[in-house]
Specification:
By secondary structure, the chain is α/β, with parallel strands linked by helices. Helix content is 31%, strand content 22%.
Length: 170
């Protein structure tokens, strides 16, 4: 049976501001209910090396999804780039324009980023879009606009991402 791994990262503030079972905690529960291994998810946005290490140790045929909210969404492409393993699905909730990375490497098959098209509504915290890295003509990238408060990792946005995780991870 093929291993299915989903790695999910908080943005800045992480667990300290998410006290209830919504947002990323709820997404982790939903993924676990489908039988996906989520390891230590939700991780802090800065746990890049820990996630890359887990991915690098995964079986060669493992299906891997990586994503996060806010700065966790900025780090998802960085994780994909650092591992060089095939990433079946990359996802993000409101990538920050103040974060590190928005370019998607060619080892990613599909990528969805939920963003808020109003810079003023999030002061740039959820305004970032994803783009292919130079030379990447392989990855299918969608930037999905939803006007919602930051980090918008619940409700309709989460349902979109969850359905895509289920679709591409099987």
């Amino acid at each position: 049976m093929t291993a299915k791994y989903v790695f999910i990262s908080y943005g800045m503030g992480g667990a300290g501001i998410e006290y209830w079972d919504s947002g990323l905690r709820q997404l982790v529960k939903r993924c676990r209910a489908l039988g996906y291994d989520t390891f230590g998810s939700p991780y802090n946005w800065s746990d890049v090396n820990a996630i890359v290490s887990e991915i690098n140790q995964a079986p060669a045929d493992a299906l891997i999804a990586v994503g996060g909210a806010s700065l966790g969404s900025n780090e998802a492409p960085d994780i994909a780039d650092r591992t060089k393993r095939r990433i079946k699905y990359l996802f993000g909730f409101q990538t920050s324009v103040w974060g590190y990375r928005t370019g998607i490497p060619a080892n990613v098959e599909r990528a969805d980023n939920i963003y808020n098209p109003s810079w003023l509504q999030t002061f740039g915290l959820g305004y970032g879009k994803w783009y292919p890295d130079p030379g990447n003509v392989r990855t299918i990238i969608r930037n999905i606009p939803i006007y919602a408060p930051h980090p918008d990792d619940w409700g309709a946005a989460q349902d979109i991402i969850y359905s895509q995780i289920h679709k591409w991870m099987g």
